[in-house]
Amino acid sequence: MSKQFEDKIGDVLVDSELAKKLVPNKFKFTSQQGRVRRQKLLVGARTLSETRAVNDISLADVCEEAGIPRASAYHFFPNVEAIFLALRFLNAIEMFEALDAIDAGDFNRWQAYLTALVEEGARIFGEDKVKAKLIYETNTPDFEGDGFGTQIDDQIIELFYNKLAERYVMPELDDIKDVLLVGYSIANGVFTLSYRLEGSITEHYTQEAITAAIAYLRCYLPEKLPAKN
Asked: Is pLDDT above 50 for 103?
């Protein structure tokens, strides 16, 4: 278990701006002792996920791994799905931070910026197999009932659009964010295929994701977006 992951937990589930947008009131404030127990449950679930399929992990398994009585666990998470939702959210925090650190101004063309974003996503999934498992494994529990996955996608597109708009004069299309969402979904679909076929996001499929997303977006974006002064 990486120290970086444990440090990420802290109060991020309740204090971050992203938490307020994606899962308002989902992870409520608790006492210091409660935070420690919540952290242990999350670390326990993540540890089990390193060697087992997510769908095969029960709340009892997580409690045993974490050394937390099941009755106490219910104070923090109503079920095991909520624990994995929290893990996915923590993964989303890290992904947003990494993508936000990439400056569109460092690239002369939008294609190069998009390439950097896709490659950064592949790097993150490559360094931590659990992140890819929680998103792409076919038997992962369904977390989409409350629209969490859709909200993550929307936030990524908002980030992508804002970064481009800071650097370039964007075309005046009413549905430009929908266009970007389709491009993102294409790249994500190739990542899904890579995980299901290869068990990871490979370099080959990373390049395929870049090629496919750029090919689609070229139908709507000019080859060279004019830079802002």
From this structure: yes
CA distance 47 to 41: 10
For residues 9 and 41, the answer to whether their CB atoms sit within 8 Å is no
Which DSSP symbol is given to 107?
A: -
pLDDT at residue 6 above 60? no
For residue 183, count CB atoms less than 10 angstroms from its CB and return exposed for 0-12, middle for 13-18, buried for 19 or more: buried
Dihedral angle computed from the Cα positions of residues 190, 194, 195 and 196, in that order, rounded to the nearest 10 degrees:
100
Q: What is the pLDDT of residue 27?
A: 61
How many beta carbons lie within 10 A of that of residue 178, not counting itself?
12
Mean pLDDT over all residues of the chain? 84
Is the per-residue pLDDT at 51 higher than 50?
A: yes
Q: Cβ contacts of residue 103 below 8 Å, gap of 6+? A: 163
- CA torsion sign, 88 to 134 to 199 to 1? positive
Sign of the dihedral defined by the CA atoms of residues 184, 188, 189, 190, in that order: positive
The pTM of this model reads 0.82
Q: Determine how many CB atoms are found less than 10 A away from the CB of residue 159.
A: 16
Tell me the percentage of the chain whose pLDDT exceeds 70.
81
pLDDT at position 13 over 80: no
Contact of 169 with 104, CB cutoff 8 Å: no
Q: Of 191, 190, 180, whose CA–CA distance to 131 is shortest?
A: 191
CB neighbours of residue 84 within 10 Å? 23
